[in-house]
Amino acid sequence: MLDQTPYSRSKRLAGVRILLVEDNTDCLNALRVLLEFNGAEVEGVACAAEARAVLPELRPHVLISDLSMPGEDGFALMAWVRRLAPEQGRDTPAMAFSALSPGDAEARATDAGFQVFLRKPGDVLLVVPTVVRLLPPTLAP
Predict the structure, then answer these.
(1) How many structural domains are present in the chain?
(2) For residue 121, what pLDDT is reported?
(3) Residue 96 vs residues 87, 116, 127, 133: alpha-carbon distances, Å
(4) Is residue 10 part of a domain?
């Protein structure tokens, strides 16, 4: 078990708000632990509709979303985000984290407005450094 005491946590993502959209509970929980262990504040939701409900008020620094979800998928969610007004979060940096094969999915994710495509589970070790890379300079460690 990870030591969750405040002194053991990395502060690499201290003060960073992340909206995590993932329909698989195990994956959602694992990513939440990883991000929170690194100091992030994580709002985890299970679907695009829940993400739409919280994003404008939460104003996350980074959005991480699965692409293949029942109902509205991550591509549609990202297209919706990019149509928002700037003050509602249109320019939120976004990472797709998906088990879909990178070829077409990566191009579609980029077209929808994601800056980065990572493949799960293999790229999990790249999640934190990628979030750091997506942060605005004022928040980057």
Answers:
(1) 1
(2) 84
(3) 22, 6, 10, 14
(4) no
In whole angstroms, give the CA distance from residue 16 to residue 123.
21
Residue 10, pLDDT score: 59
Whole-prediction pTM = 0.90
d(CA 62, CA 56): 13
Report pLDDT digits (tens) over 21-47: 999 999 999 999 999 999 999 999 999
> The domain spanning residue 81 has which CATH number?
3.40.50.2300
Tell me the three state secondary structure of residue 109. Answer: helix
Report residue 129 as tokens.
């450094």
Range of the domain at 83: 17-119
In the chain, the amino acid numbered 70 is P
Strand, helix or coil for residue 127: helix
Q: What percentage of the chain reaches a pLDDT higher than 70?
A: 91
Question: What's the length of the chain?
Answer: 141
Residue 141, in any domain of the structure:
no
DSSP lists the bridge partners of residue 44 as: 20
Instruction: Mark 70-105 as b/e (b = at least 16 C-beta within 10 Å).
Output: eeebbbebbebbeeeeeeebeebbbbbbbebeeeeb
- How many CA atoms lie within 13 Å of 76's alpha carbon, on the beta-carbon side? 10
